[in-house]
Batch of 3 targets.
Target 1
Amino acid sequence: VERGFDCDVLIAGGGVVGCAIARELTLFDLRVTLLEAGPDIGAGTSKANTALLHTGFDAKPGTLEAELVVRGYEQLGRYAERVGIPVERSGALLVAWSEEQLGSLPSIVEQSHANGYEPIRELSAEELYRREPHLGSGALGALEVPDEGIICPFTTPLAFATEAVLAGCELRRGVAVTSLERLADGGLLVRAGAREWRTRYFVNAAGLRSDELDHMLGHDGFTVTPRRGELIVFDKLSRRLVSHIVLAVPTKITKGVLIAPTVFGNVMLGPTAEDVERKDDTSSTAAGLDYLRAEGGRIMPALLEQEVTAVYVGLRAATEHTDYQVSIHADEGYVCVGGIRSTGLSGSMAIAEHVRGLLEDAGLTLSPRPGPPVELTMPNIGEAFTRPYTDAERIAADPDYGRIVCFCERVTRGEIRDAFASPIPPVDLDGLRRRTRAHMGRCQGFFCGAELASLLEERA
Amino acid sequence: VSVVVVGGGPAGLAAARELGRLGVPDVVVIERERQAGGIPRHAVHQGFGLRDLRRPLSGPAYGRRLAAFASRAGAELRAETMVTGWSPEGPLELTGPRGRELLEPDTVILASGCRERPRSARLVPGSRPAGVITTGTLQQLVYLKGEHIGGRALVVGAEHVSFSALLTLTHGGAQPVGMTTELARHQSLAAFRAGAAVRFRAPLWTRTRVSAIHGRPRVEEVELTDLDGGGTRSVACETVVFTADWIPDNELAVMGGLELDPATRGPVVDEALRTSRPGVFAVGNLLHGAEQADVAALSGRHAAAAVARFLAGGGWPERRVRIGCRAPLAWVSPTALAGGPPPRARFLVRSREFLRHPRIEIAQDGRPLWSGRLARLVPGRSGRLPDEWTARADPEGGPVTVLVASARG
């Protein structure tokens, strides 16, 4: 750390992007601080999205978003396999329901090729229904995108943040930035919570609040208008109905409503897309849910017969610009990482690498962090991989992995204990849910709610 | 192992006890909770055990007694163990502190019970604050964990269990501020409603839907909509209890490839509670959502006799005739005919609407099998249809239909 500074880089925002940046920078010999305003990392926009691992086939060619999503797809795919983030390459089918949509498919193929993604191909209606027999009637054709995937939106930021913390990153949760001040000799004074930090560089990854922090520094590059997305999660018994991500033909305004399996073995329907005023307005609406049910009934009528397990609402940090708003003000030591919308999960690692490059260009010295690299293995909460309750060896070594507490999601006492003992332990039921799947299932606590509440109380 | 009973609630425990009495050896009851006993473990009020044990007991005492009876009858009770996998042909996969285990018994009795639909499954819009729970969670918080709930609470639903939730709330130090039901009247006993009106002074809002829940991090306010006038009112509270709206916990039944009845959402069973899969029986509230615990226990006892006959070489019916119903009826159970008497020599029937003196007609292929009047049907409570007509049904014929020919509302 340079003399007079508390840290080399301070990152505001512990969403998937901020966590990825923290991880990237702690690979080097730097003092990094990560501040998250919410009670937990990954608890804002990052927790309530469609959880797709995009190839970037449909991004606007030539944009920063297209470049970073394409690169981030490869990076996150490899990283997920290495550290145990649940990921499944289910493939996507982009379905045309009208002649007009059918006519637009060739241009989407062209766009995909321009983004460097070649395996995309057209399917006849017959081929489509063979792959997804439960689709509603009337589909005329489709594009197959075999490499699109689904990924765990909870484990991803948690893995980044955990790796960063193990590499020495200072993480503060429940601490919102209240003021930013330029220091005379360069760098910034960041006030947050009851404390202040002097940092050489400041990275604004504050998502929905990124425009506010930008304005605090006198910039006026963009305004965030939260775009609300409501999602319905169906019971695991519906999983057999769907094998691919079923996408709609995008319009200028929206990518439309999709149906996708989740890594937890459910099926998701959504999102809606509605601009709202308040940045904390994560309420579902009767109109939104009605709309989703109508769309779902058209795309896959059998899905609506299934029980609903949960309704989620996320806010995308949309701006007036179509591309990411990533820039560095080298003289101020300020990097802005704003306008990261739905593709932030897929692009996160490439965004982080890009930010690292910007900092390096601005003069930040990057030498490898001394000491051994962090070896990280995240607890698996994905349905496609071995979980403790099916692992005879683990149960034999520790019977707590055989004691199921959350029956719907088969979460064991051992996993809950591990979550509390982890480098970034949960502080509330939502945090425990994101780390273990406890309370995420069809009964929503009818059977296990009281037991989980007392386990939480014991630890808190 | 000759019989595996999945679920150690009243139905499963009563089945295990009866199997012991009938001399069936090697009966194992698999219970995923730490103690057997099922829902009565945390239903701390009187009224359990009247129909089966002929004495009034509290829920916990009833649960303990059934577990002790099953043990004494020779059944092995394996707690903290869950059936986590099954397939249409495969063995039962178990997980417990003893490890993983595969069991391939001669017969399986599914007794996995039911649960209340949570707020999310009811698609109630709004934010997702803490303090939105089901009666099941509420009872466990108050009676098993001794938690203080406090504050004000709204009860959604007006069935027996909803009134029980009122009581539990006061035991948890919370003040009930009202009850809602989408129907025109409550569906419980007049005495319960009158008692609640005096004791809690909590209004009952009928024809009312919970249209939104607001607050963060805990509930602050619930919006109610009048289904007739369309007007809304706002109720300030810190807890919302979603009661009733039961659904069978049918995951294993689906995994095991059992035919499900679309109306009950439980496995299709005949009078002997045999499912579509030879050697597999289903009992209790897995069949149709909540009946009282002693009714579930009697269904377990009933199936045990059929299990014993099956194990003695009794065979499995080749064919069965399905039974269905038409609106406003919600379901009929058992859901198939294959001969013999159903539990308690009756078919249970539920209605979605209040019906006074409904004339019920049972017919097969347009041919009347039975017709008669019931005193009344109340949503959420079962009516009783006799079983005398089943001998007149054609075992080779089409499905049997139960319908309401006439009624007053």
Target 2
Amino acid sequence: MMLERWWLIARLRLRSLLRPKQIEEELRDEIRFHLDERTRDLQTRGMAEDVAANAARRAFGGLDQRTEECRDARQIGPIEDLGKDVRHALRLMRRSPAVTAVAVLSLALGIGANTAIFTVFDALLLKPLPVDRPDTLRTTEPIARIGAGAAKKSFSLPYEFFQALQRDDSVFSEVLAFTIGNEPVLSDGTRVLPTTGGVLFVSANYFSMLKVQPQAGRLFRPHDGPQSQQAVVLGDRYWREQFAADPNAVGRSIHVNGTLATIIGVTPSEFFGLTVGRAPDVYMPIVPPSPGAPASGVQIVGRVQPGVTDPEARDRLTAFLQSHQPVATNRPALTVEVLPLETGLSTTRALFGKPLSALMAMVVLLLVVACTNVATILLARGAARRVEISIRSAIGAGRMRLFRQLTTEGAVLVVCGGALGIVLARWTVDVLLRLLQLVDASLAVTTVLDARVLLFSALACGVAVLVAAVAPASHALRASSGAVLRERSEPSHSLRRPGGAFVVIQVAVSLMLVAASGLLARTLYSLVTIDAGFNPNRVAVVSVATGARGYERERLVQYYEDLSVRLRAMPGVEAASLSQFSVLTTARTTGTINVPGFAPATDDDRWVQVYQVGAQFLRALAIPIVKGHDFTDADLTSTPTAIAINTMVARRFFGDENPIGRSIFGDARHEYRVIAVVADGRYNTLREANVPIIFVPYTERLRERMTYTVRFSSTTGESETAALQRVLAEVRTLDPLVPAYGERLQALIDRSLGQERLLVVIAGWFAAAALLLLALGLYGVIGFWVTARTGEIGVRLALGARRSQVIWDVLRRPAALVLLGVTLGGVMTLAGARLAGSLLFGLSPQDPVTLATATTFLVAVAGLAAIVPARRASRVDPVVALRCD
Amino acid sequence: VSKPSDLVQGTLDLLILKILALEPLNGFAIGQRLRQVSDEVLQVSDGSLYPALHKLEQQGWITAEWKLTDNNRRAKFYSLTRPGRRHLDHESANWERLSTAITALVKLKEA
């Protein structure tokens, strides 16, 4: 009943708004009908027609007044007023297109940048996984605490443990397992299908537990029996890129690492597994390890039983694992941490979490700059319109009505800017993702302009309205209260020149942005110019995946050695060697070593990073040899096994003694003999120094993927790219069926600095945008102040004031405001920079040089923006100025 | 009564609803009916009827429709909505209680 009534009312109101003319006509018709009827009625009682008509009119009472009362009944006044205000605001905007353009573009920039960064930030860091009840999912992370220190190493859990958990439901009601396939080679039988997302091996219940529905074909089911042929499910992106989204792809076969598999279905587009920022190309069922095979690790995810807290789950799982651990290993006892999985696993979060948070903070600051910029402009315009406002209020406009009108003016600007910003954001998000993919090529994020993002944009607009519309409006009203009309000719010192606070805030926040981009730029510079401990010039790195061939051990060594010989024989090659991965990739191998007579303070001291290398490796990377010699072919097969150590290992294990020729014992008391000590280097990331590293022959443990490092002579004049192409061609000549990927080492280094570069680029844009806005804002606001004081300046010039005095007088207040803003901004920068400490390198967050440079730069820009209107003021013609009042 | 006082205004709404509960009518006819049923006691000026009608319409108690009259003229006919009927029941119950109380009070004074 209530609803029915609201529906009736809403329909009427809507009609009143949309059909005002028709409603007016109906009102007129209704009253005319009444008058006609009454006239007829009176005529039947014997009145003459004209007398009757007059009488009818009299009987009706004040015709206009009654009609107006009927209109009032419609109660759409406030909405009509809003319409009028919006039209008025649009008229004003059209009247000063320059101001409008600056304001709308400022807001579009602020809101658009915020929307774009938030879209990516949300997708990578905040958004819940698009699966069934993600809040009840938990991931398990087995952690071994090594020694007393904080050093943690995480392992994957044995598949048997997953099977045990499936039978036990005291902690998890459901449990799934998955593991990432190692460097798969996919082909459709005729050509290799490039893969960036790789293969994800999943338990049979993976899709059903997450309630993922296929967009084509079907997905794995928990009770699928053994298949006659291997089955695979394609990821949405891979299906689109490699199969052109062909629905007939289902049923076709592809080769995965040489085995034939049938495509049974495609995952939906919003699904990307449980790891945010990754999207597997292909899903395959986990193959349970055959008895006796080495335990293979899996990642286990469970749906926690209601009422079981995470600490309880951790304790139970840890106890459970310890009772299930198949054979006592020499590994320390594992604790199974239970972590929430609502927003997904966090490999990309580790990579992009901090930079994106920093960008998010900076982009919010940029919005503040944009809003204060618009606020100063509107304030100044409000001041220029004081007379208009006083007149309106003198002839009876209510204060609330005026406030609403002024706020609407600002709000219309915000809505225009916001709409434009959201359009720009769609495009900016793509650019941003491209930039992120330069850092992490396999990054896969689906960003959509969804309700969350729009809500955020609306929030940003709300802030903008508050700062850029409400504040200037209330200020304009306050300024216009009292006898403004009389005040017109009073000396300007008593005039309130609004906007001071906004200028201060704008300067302060801009300084923070400029200083931040300065800190990031200097960080990048430090990293680019750092001595990495190897020489990347004229070096190519080429990785080969021999897994495709399925070679036995001897044949594999034969292949690697043949390739080494061929590469070393190429003209222009100074040295060529191989290792299990290139420097500056995220991969690393670790192990523990013992030296007789060395008693480690903690167990952690025995951990070293292991590089498996071939002959000439040190020469190929130009790693400085402190003592001893580079690996030779003979060192690859010698007993005890040859080993090279870095200075850090030498100092830790041998002190001041000469390590050359001494023995080192590895796992299972395998003996090594030291052949070289090399200088410490930054092989993992350029940021990471002081890592204990050993180099051992690659033949120790053969791998199906190796990376060749080839150094070219600098005398040939051949470009690095051309040389790289020759190497790739040589690899293909040896065996065309071994896939090879290569790049210049310098390119790899550039890529490893992609995150820093990205931050510098975006922070630089933000800083430039903030400075541009600041300059426009200052220029505008000082211009308005000058206009407001034209009369006074004219008088002073007429009385003989010097022009320089006038300039100084105009600039005094902005200069004070800028100084105040710079001081405030400096303090805020020093306080805020500490949060960004871990993003920086080679300098302190409170680096005085950067702050001083940023301040100087900002003051210079502000000065330029201020001097133009100030000079204009000094050229006021006294006669003209006096006449205009 | 040219401009009804607050008491009469509230009463006017009630009377209009009551009249419309019987049959849909146009504004003029409502005025005539008002006079007839109250034996000319309640004399509502023609003009004040319309703001009242429009207000009731905007409140959702009555709804309007353009129809032809007996002598073939287009007129706006008002009729009671379902919420309006419930509102009328509620208001007339109120009125009865009030008038009973006032009648009792007035009689008390006479005695």
Target 3
Amino acid sequence: MDFEPGKREAEVGAIVEAELAARADAANAMEAADAGALRSTLLDVQAAVAGAGVDLAGGEGTAWAADLATCLPLARASTSLFLAVSATRQCATLLASRGLLPAPLAAEFRRGSVVGAVASSEPAGTEAPASLSGTPWTLAGRKSFVTNGPIADVFAVTARTPEGEALCRVAASRPGVTAGARIATVGLNGLAVSDMDLSGVDVDVDQVADGRAEPSPRARYALDADLTLSFAAVGLMQRVLQAAKAHAAGHKRGGRAIAKHQEVGFKLAEMLTVTHAAELLARRAAWMVALSGPEAATLVRCARVFCAEGAERVASGAMQVAAGEGFVAGNPIERAWRDAKGLAFAGTTVEVARLSIADGLLERY
Amino acid sequence: MLLVGSCRPDRTEDTMEFGLTSEQCLLREQVARFARQEIVPRVREHDLKSEFDLESWRKLGEYGLLGLNLPAEYGGGGADVMTCIVAGEALGLAGVDGGLTLAYGAHSFLCADTILQHGSDEQKVRWLPKLATGEWIGCMGLTEPGAGSDAASLRMRAERVEGGWRLNGSKMFITNGPIADVAVVFAKTDPEAGHAGISTFVVEQGTPGFSAGQPLHKLGMRSSLTSELVFDDCVVPESALLGYEGAGFLVALQALEWDRSTLLAPALGTMEMVIERCCRYAKEREQFGKKIAEFQAIRHKIADMKIFLEAARSLVYRIAWCKDQGRPMNHLEASVAKLFVGDWSLQPSNDAVVLHGGYGFCAEYDVERVYRDLRVAAIGGGTSDIQKMIISRLMGGGA
């Protein structure tokens, strides 16, 4: 047992700090940026993170899970950037898991010079899911809420085949691939998310993986996405707690800092407790995934729920501490408060995650 | 990380690592098996009667648990804190009640470990071997009728007399108080010196002027006996002073870390046991023509129990690890673990009772006992408010 954070984590932290420090008001600028500017920022950060030794091609097996902890400083700096970088890494990891990541492309991912995206979700009520048919394969359908959708170079797309769910690698430049405009959202505004149309996209045989292998691409991606979202939530909590603490130390009432009033000091103590619990749970889940431990999926779901709900709780507490100042648009607390909501239903919703946890327990006992 | 079948000593590169050793995994299995066979059959009876289970106590001693944390030279097992946590979890998992595990914790950690950490060789030789076997029962007295976590407000006095010290005052809510053979107690030796005026003494039962009150009737932890300790012109020899004069506050702080670490471990195992009970019940009980396990609301409750357990486990393991690194003070980690277990255990233990419906309100299903026992987690060893005060001070607030 060892509760010391890894050394590379500190290195990533220093690099991320330097990268973002070079951009004035980076977080707010990202919220207002167009897709081109977002892509440029993302490529810079990816290159910096890759330079710190984080393998954006996913590494061997489940090594990606350990790298999530290494990237926690990025999550602390910017939820959106962390999710965007993770989407690239998730695309590469998913493709690699099915032998769809050729060496030259893997090398590009490792340099951070390519933006990836996973297209898995489909619009609610879809009667005809994205599917592959014919010989050679033709891909058709519609995907929704694709992170990095408008700025990606390459997509990992899940699609139906007669044998089951397949995975295919699709270049953004492929005829028939159309990423929609960025979706306007309440939070996570530094993230480029869009729907995606696939109209008669020709896919080469070597860009499609068998639909019969287990776990399905969707299940594999869900585990990755849920763990990633857990770390995003932890980073958000750490950031917002720091902001609330700083506000409480500097803002005075009755002649003394509000942090010295129990109503504020105790709230900060509760926020810190939840943040610590969330961080350790996410790290433990990542450790278990990296080792392919027997309860990895359950632990990831536990982290998913606790971290997402913890982020909402801590962000809300921080806004209460910062009061009007925290309510002003552009304040990091206000932004985190909006971002936290998105983390509660992205990936597996906390409700579905709970059902999944219970299913596992009911099966065991 | 402690999940059945998942004990992995592997070390992943350059990141936190949560595995138990294979020895710890084996210990967990052995302790749980031992407890199920030798202790659990008497648990309900003693809880209902609010009686201390001396037979189980002796068995815990024979098995080596009461001295697990003590060095072999004093008859102990020489285990580190993490291993003690594993043993505590195993007792809870097996179904041992909170009363007995609390008695064990107060004896082994608050009393014996304090003597181990601060005692002279003579003091260790005198008391530890008997505590390691359970032949003697130990307790620790810090809280007073008018002073709990505010140690600086202690009123119990220790005055120098020829050849020793005269103790006057009383202690309150002392686990094992009515049955203890030896007590570690704190008293003011210099009332003007604040924290630096507190010293620690070890007092043996039978010392003239030392007596224990009647056991208190409690909501939970009923098989652990709790009482007042009274010191009325109780004269103890110089050799009763533990550590140096004026060091009592630091000794108390270190002792309280046990309250906020190892003593929490049985609650983890207990919650794991409760989850299993709830799952089994939910798969048997039918309402509206189907098993209640099929209702989403029930499954969400079960999931929340598991989420609490895993979040709490990480925090308790962290404080154990901190102590095993030899760090003398780990206030933040200890208070965070204590606050979380204390406050967040209330909902899942309540849910377990509700999930069982009317049966949950009856002793036969044990969940009501767990509900009562866990209630003290937010009270003993410093209430949740005290933990928040400590945390906020460490954050720079000082509320």
